[in-house]
Amino acid sequence: MKDTARYRTVQKDLRRSIIEGKYRVGDLLPSENELCSHYGIARMTVRNALSNLETEGLIERQKGKGSIVKFKRKSIELLSIKGFTEIMKGKEHKIDTVFLQAPMVSQWEDDFYWALSEMEIQAGSIFMSRIRMSGEKVIMVENTFLSNSNLTDFCEIPFINKSLFDTLIVNHDIEMTGVVQKFRAIPATEELANSLQLGVGAPILEIIRKLTTNREGFFVYSFAYCNTDDFTIEA
Amino acid sequence: MKDTARYRTVQKDLRRSIIEGKYRVGDLLPSENELCSHYGIARMTVRNALSNLETEGLIERQKGKGSIVKFKRKSIELLSIKGFTEIMKGKEHKIDTVFLQAPMVSQWEDDFYWALSEMEIQAGSIFMSRIRMSGEKVIMVENTFLSNSNLTDFCEIPFINKSLFDTLIVNHDIEMTGVVQKFRAIPATEELANSLQLGVGAPILEIIRKLTTNREGFFVYSFAYCNTDDFTIEA
DNA sequence: TAGTGGTCTAGACCACTGC
DNA sequence: CAGTGGTCTAGACCACTAA
């Protein structure tokens, strides 16, 4: 009868509120009893939702106190950029993300690095290209591919928090569950040298990743190229 | 009244059975109803236990079928070396580990990369240097530091499986629980170029890692330098 | 069709935190 | 002390799997 389970509704509502910043880190969520009466459901149902949010790492629960917003994501899916030298400590190094190519529907490349399933090939791909900058300096070029399946309006609706992962989980209920990531140091090609404002042949960090999700057969593929003169990449 | 919750008992029993091999990968656990009557408890209690085992990654549950044993553990702490090109598929590329410097007691370096606790400084460090080779070719140079605390005979007893991690867990009950890892691409210094049989200035992959363990305040620090011409590093 | 896990209810008692 | 999350019960109907 019900399209979606009630605990899923509660889970999604709370998750959206946390990710969008309605609750901040350290805040208490409404108590279980409050959620029960608000949604008109039994406590075990609310607890199911909260238990899942705890597994996702979004909250922590304390007896006698309540459900506390954590929102320290497991860094497993994030490529985080850190200043390398001590000098960076004082300096600002806010990282900005800019689209070189906004998400667009396209074909998979013929010589795509990873093996694709029949399902993925049928669905086609969504491609985007982003750069991460510190001030005027380009730190990373990242090309991302995902399978174009059941992602309604993905290319039309703007990202949440400028983040692919926040957008996937809030708008599409897709959560990253694991990653295979490969690292190499390669000499900059002319194209990369241009993008990263380096000389041809300069050392570039290449990161090739395949992210698994809670949706069967749905993966996110990412190819990143980094100038690590002043920054390290944490992964 | 109860020292341990009933669902914890069920969880522990099943976990032990899985890890000890009583159930194999792909096997079905007893059904929820069977577990209920076996333990004489309510179904929601059994489900709590199974839900936790699912979160631990030990089982998978399927509607209409049952609880299936998975037991794929991830080895978060390993740097694994993979052939990069398709050509490597057919070829042998067994990786050999050789000591350049066997484990030895020493002082911490003055300009050590990571901040050390008072406890670590007091204890002093154990240092070792290893290379990984594919045939005659050096793929990686890795320098490792650990705090010299309560590691009886660590420098005297040979490694188990040539592996630091196997040795730490079997001989010293120390298990890796997490890692912070930083990646950079750097030009080879003369020393690195020599070790890795490359030209000066060639791109080198640098991996700096701090591993956390189940022993409070005990960390393993590792600095690795890789020739990624023919291999990628998975981490 | 019989058995499985998925969802849900309306209670209950407990240990703990904070006032 | 009132309120919180932790544990637990004894039912219920559902969708799914396999025989």
What would your notes on this structure say?
- Two copies of one chain form a homodimer.
- Chain A has 235 residues and is an alpha+beta fold.
- Chain A folds into two domains: 6-69, Winged helix-like DNA-binding domain superfamily/Winged helix DNA-binding domain (Arc Repressor Mutant, subunit A, Orthogonal Bundle); 75-234, Chorismate lyase (3-Layer(aba) Sandwich).
- Chain A is 24% helix and 34% strand.
- The first copy, chain A, is built from six helices and ten strands, in the order αααββββαββαβαβββ.
- In chain A, the strands form three sheets. A six-stranded antiparallel β-sheet of chain A has the order 4-5-6-9-8-7.
- In chain A, helix 1 (6-19) packs across helix 3 and helix 2 crosses helix 3.
- The N and C termini of chain A lie far apart (43 Å).
- The interface between A and B is medium-sized, with 27 and 27 residues.
- Strand 10 of chain A pairs antiparallel with strand 7 of chain B.
Quick overview of this protein structure:
The structure is a homodimer of 235-residue chains. Helices cover 24% and strands 34% of the residues of chain A.
Characteristic key phrases:
DNA-binding; homodimer; transcription (chains A, B); 10 strands; 235 residues; Chorismate lyase; DNA-binding (chains A, B); WH_DNA-bd_sf (chains A, B); two-stranded antiparallel sheet; Chorismate_lyase_/UTRA_dom_sf (chains A, B); 2 domains; six-stranded antiparallel beta sheet; Arc Repressor Mutant, subunit A; DNA-binding transcription factor activity (chains A, B)
